[in-house]
């Protein structure tokens, strides 16, 4: 085996239109080479051809880039690449690390294998997902959890689900909480941001509550509709701004809003430019995040970072992420949500800063690197050679 073939990491989720797991893959893959390569470990990262920024950052950190097909090609071409061609390419490495749940079988990767599992929503809410994804999570994911030597996840809540529902070995689980961009999502108002927000969407400061993400049944948008209905019956004039891509079969929700005469109380914003999103948080009265299930809940951190109160559902990863800063309700209690929307909420700034200080992408990568470094060193020792102190650039 060639020196330097320690870690083969797959960041195939990141591309021009990535979100969720793609953002996670980008933030981790761009940091780990810089943390591991100075220790003499060789790191190769598989990156999509249309993700040149990530490729440049991997190289800047001392890593080597293996180029994958671009994101825009069909799954018919990408799946064989991930499940057959890539593992054959990586057979000489000590450790194969997938930054999502797609992990080829052990027969193709005889050395140490690491998978990433952030949620099991397709098992909890199967109606929201296609047949192939349901089949994968029902059949293939349990195999991944049984055969992977390590499984990375983002919250204790998800880790408990993997153990309780899929019988994952708790000794194999690594919990590395996710981060957020604290420089962007801060309490520091930008000059003229309220005016720009009004010009773009007609929204006055503190005139609305925010609901972010792709609408689907697990997001519990129906609870927000019922809360608005109750507030209107009490003579209130609430406004909820829904920011995010088109929802999954959300036509029924919007039809319910129309039939109930609530159309004036909801505003749909399909796309929010990156420069306006922090202002959208800062100028709102609060973030409504009553999802039944989330893998982590980055919008909770973003909202709190902007100094904006948040309400979440009980017994979810979002409640774990928000800790003492968020208000928690029963996800079926529309009256509780209505009361929360009616009240004014103020965050304790010292407590907010102290709590949020534990969340950053640097810390996420540091937790993973602390797990990887001794693991990679042990693999090398087992094979009778020590880590190199330098790595030749590609």
From TrEMBL:
Gene3D superfamilies assigned: Glycogen Phosphorylase B (3.40.50.2000)
GO terms assigned for molecular function: glycosyltransferase activity
Domain of life: Bacteria
Family annotation (Pfam families): Glycos_transf_1 (PF00534)
Ranges that cross the membrane: none
GO terms classed as biological process: lipopolysaccharide biosynthetic process
Name assigned to this protein: Glycosyl transferase family 1 domain-containing protein
Keywords, sorted A to Z: Transferase
InterPro entries listed in its UniProt record: Glyco_trans_1
Glycosyl transferase family domain boundaries: 208-339
